[in-house]
Design a protein that fits this description.
486 residues, mainly alpha, two-stranded antiparallel ribbon, 21 helices, globular
């Protein structure tokens, strides 16, 4: 590429945020339109990553490297491979959808909300692109503040409690990772260069210590059982856009961290700890699913479903084979699309009813047929119906799981049954029972809401029917990762 595409994708939202900063608070419509324009531009600028990516290579592409702080050997170093490129694209896609869904629901401090939204988009894309540990940590921590504000300022009644809980959990894990990064710096030749560190072989005891230091940050972000308790609170209290960012991108960063750092940097420790990680993954799959069965809050149910779905992702990653790893990566993308869409749909109905209680609804399919159709598509995708995107990811994960451990594969398969049970029962209660008098006056989805959800429907069907479009991006990078582990 002739121009720095990754820097452009990262800093375009920052430019948008600076323009919003200079605008008057009363220019509410202009603020919304500028936010939408900059998020759409960011997505458009990211498309060359998809169109010009060389799928036959396993190394980093679209690389940008400049000296930043030479005294500490710190560089501004960006690049993507088959593991990270799809997450950059997903982050760029969800940006405009978050702006659209917030168009009428955010009524206070509109300017500040959209500034926070643009800044968190920039930080998320930076995390997936950084190839210098110092730069990675800057982006990793930079997204905490806008997310904390999105929950704490524009969230529900318990927003302050949820925002502080989110911040403390994630910060505590991140501090331990920072210690691990500093230890790597001194043991790896005084460099923060991620690729250089990956080429080195560290002693087993050091690998083990660093594995758990990085685990602290990544497990909280996933979130893995038992450090998952911040997620339902954050999801429940966050505004719709905040929930979409949390489900679509933020919790993927933990699993991405395992893929990008834990496996290639600490291969011996990873193999030794794989049984522990598989056990934690199985607990998350079954526990998350069973908890969903007893939820009365629509948003909280979908939040707990993320614990179960991300359990599948970590199961695939720590199966440590080609099928499991590719299934885990694809399922991260699938979860971002499907659960992001479900939170968007919860926001649509919440804007009308101002209630998340499942008992408040009933017969919604009669009153809002278009809404019911959209919800059904994403419900079926969530439970892994063949032909939709959830199926192929779960299939590869369970295949990889069986190769790693027959017991793990069998137990994970029960999670699919539990998932079908809670999602179909949810759909029955909300859409097919007797029409609740409260909902009779509700209007069906408008054009803005349909446009917001339509791209995600396309992706659900596209990945379900022809997953190789996306799997082909990761083949070579995953193959090299498996070779390094072996």
């Amino acid at each position: 590429m002739a121009y720095p595409v990754l820097s452009t994708v990262i800093f375009l939202p920052v430019v948008g945020a600076l323009i919003l900063l200079l605008m008057g608070r009363r220019q509410e419509l202009a603020i919304k339109w500028f936010s939408l324009i900059f998020t759409v531009l960011t997505f458009v600028v990211s498309l060359p990553l998809f169109l010009n990516f060389d799928k036959t290579r396993s190394d980093m592409q679209f690389v940008e490297v400049f000296e930043w702080i030479p005294a500490w050997n710190i560089k501004y170093y960006l690049g993507v491979d088959g593991i990270s490129v799809l997450f950059v694209l997903l982050s760029a896609l969800l940006g405009p959808l978050c702006v659209l869904i917030s168009w009428h629901s955010i009524k206070d401090k509109i300017k500040e909300f959209y500034i926070a939204l643009l800044l968190i988009e920039a930080a998320m894309i930076g995390v997936f692109s950084a190839l210098d540990f110092f730069l990675f940590y800057v982006f990793w921590e930079a997204m905490l503040i806008p997310m904390y504000l999105i929950i704490g300022v524009w969230g529900g009644p318990r927003r302050i409690y949820s925002a502080i809980k989110f911040f403390l959990y994630t910060l505590a894990g991140s501090v331990l990772m920072l210690v691990g990064i500093i230890v790597l710096y001194f043991n790896g030749g005084h460099t923060f260069d991620i690729l250089s560190l990956m080429s080195q072989k560290f002693p087993y005891k050091l690998q083990l210590i660093l594995f758990w230091a990085f685990f602290a940050a990544f497990a909280v972000k996933v979130p893995m059982w038992p450090v998952h308790t911040w997620l339902p609170d954050a999801h429940t209290e966050a505004p719709t856009a905040g929930s979409v960012i949390l489900a679509g991108i933020l919790i993927k960063m933990g699993a991405y961290g395992f893929l990008r750092f834990s496996l290639p940097l600490f291969p011996d420790a990873t193999k030794a700890m794989a049984p522990v990680m598989l056990t934690l993954s199985i607990i998350a799959i079954i526990y998350g699913g069973l908890i969903c069965l007893v939820q009365s809050d629509l948003k909280r149910l979908i939040a707990y479903s993320s614990v179960s779905h991300m359990g599948f992702v970590t199961l695939g990653i720590f199966a440590l084979n080609q099928q499991g790893l590719e299934g885990g990566i694809l399922q991260m993308i699938n979860h971002g699309i499907v659960t992001g869409a479900l939170f968007l749909l919860v926001g649509v109905i919440y804007d009308r009813s101002h209630s998340r209680e499942i008992s408040h609804y009933g017969g919604v399919a009669t009153v809002l047929p278009v809404y019911a159709g959209f919800f059904m598509v994403f419900t079926l995708a969530s439970i892994g119906l063949p032909g939709l995107n959830g199926f192929i990811g779960e299939f590869l994960i369970i295949l990889g799981g069986f190769k790693a451990s027959r017991l793990a594969g069998a137990l994970a398969a029960t999670g699919i049954i539990i998932g079908a049970a809670y999602m179909l029962w949810l759909y029955q209660r909300v859409f097919f029972e007797e029409v609740n008098p409260h909902i009779k006056g509700y209007k069906d989805m408008d054009l803005r809401e349909i446009i917001t959800l339509a791209p995600l429907v396309v992706l659900v069907v596209w990945i379900g029917v022809y997953p190789n479009t996306f799997l082909s991006f990761m083949h070579e990078s995953v193959k090299q990762l498996v070779i390094k582990l072996q």
